[in-house]
Structure formats: C-alpha cells, structure tokens
C-alpha cells in the first residue's frame, strides 16, 4: 500500500501560511483508513494551522513560504511556539548501465545543504523496467 508522503501537505500548508490563507483537502474516509500515516498528516495540518492562526510567522518567512521553490517543515516546540526549518529537495536519477565484466557500476551523487544542520532523509524509488531479472539492488 502506497503511503502518503508528508512533503505534499507541508508544501500546501507552507504556501497557505505564506499567503495567510485557508484551504481545503478533499479526503475519502476509506483511503484515510488504509493510509497508515493519517494521524501524522492530521498532526502536521494542526501544527501549521495553529501557527498560522496565531500569527507566528514574520513577513520575511511568509515571503519565503510563498515561493514554491522553497520547502519547509514545521514542528511545535512549546505551547504557542514553533520551529520552522527550511530544507532543500534534490532529485537524482541513477540510470541502469550496461558494463563489461569487472567494470564498476557505482554512481556518485553530491548534495550541499545550504541550511542549518538537519537529518538526512531520502526516498528511493526502484523501477526495474522490462527485464525484471535485473531487479536486484545492493547497498
């Protein structure tokens, strides 16, 4: 079962906070029941909305949140206080290579985080293609 990734709600919620706007999600109860991260999604919505409605964001933050190139994560800290983290998303594609015996097949990706130290998070999507006999991944 595919689980909803929190990036999408954070993106919508950051934009709404940037414009100090309200929004609506169209949700289906059966999909929520099967999702597995519904509580986390609703908690994220609650955190962003509580901060937005309390006027927690300064104008400089709002302007950054209006820009769809910027990504944010918000965490509640103390009652009425939040920590706003800006982060960067990079997408790398590792193409399948055809090689000679003994030829290395490694790929190197470089990423520089321009923001404060934060945990590294990543999502790996594997598409084996037509020849599923080559569907082995090694890390």
Structure description:
This protein has about 140 residues and is an alpha+beta fold. It has one domain (about 5-135). The chain contains four helices and two strands. The chain has helices at about 5-20, 30-35, 40-55, 60-65, and strands at about 70-75, 80-85. It has a two-stranded antiparallel sheet. Helix 1 (about 5-20) packs across helix 4 (about 60-65). The protein is extended, with a radius of gyration of 20 Å.
Explain briefly what this protein structure is:
It contains four helices and two strands. The chain is an alpha+beta fold and 139 residues long.
Secondary structure: number of strands: 2
Order of helices and strands: HHHHEE
| Largest sheet data | 2 strands, antiparallel
Mean pLDDT: 81
C-alpha end-to-end distance:
24 Å
Helix content: 25-40%
Low-pLDDT stretches are 1-6
The rough form would be described as extended
Give the total of domains: 1
Q: Which value, in Å, is the CA radius of gyration?
A: 20 Å
Number of helices: 4
Task: Give keywords.
alpha+beta; 139 residues; two-stranded antiparallel ribbon
Any chance you could write out the topology, listing elements then pairs?
Elements: H1 7-18, H2 29-35, H3 38-54, H4 59-66, E1 71-76, E2 82-87
Antiparallel strand pairs: 1-2
């Amino acid at each position: 079962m595919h689980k909803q990734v929190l990036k999408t709600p954070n993106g919508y919620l950051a934009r709404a906070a940037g414009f100090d706007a309200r929004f609506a999600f169209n949700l289906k109860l059966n999909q929520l029941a099967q999702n597995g991260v519904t509580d986390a999604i609703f908690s994220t919505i609650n955190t962003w909305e509580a901060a937005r409605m309390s006027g927690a964001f300064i104008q400089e933050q709002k302007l950054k949140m209006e820009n769809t190139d910027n990504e944010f994560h918000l965490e509640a800290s103390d009652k009425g206080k939040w920590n706003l983290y800006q982060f960067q998303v990079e997408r790398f594609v590792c193409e399948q290579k055809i090689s000679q015996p003994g030829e290395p097949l490694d790929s190197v990706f470089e990423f520089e985080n321009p923001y404060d130290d934060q945990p590294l998070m990543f999502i790996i999507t594997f598409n084996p293609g037509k020849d599923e006999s080559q569907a082995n991944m090694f890390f």
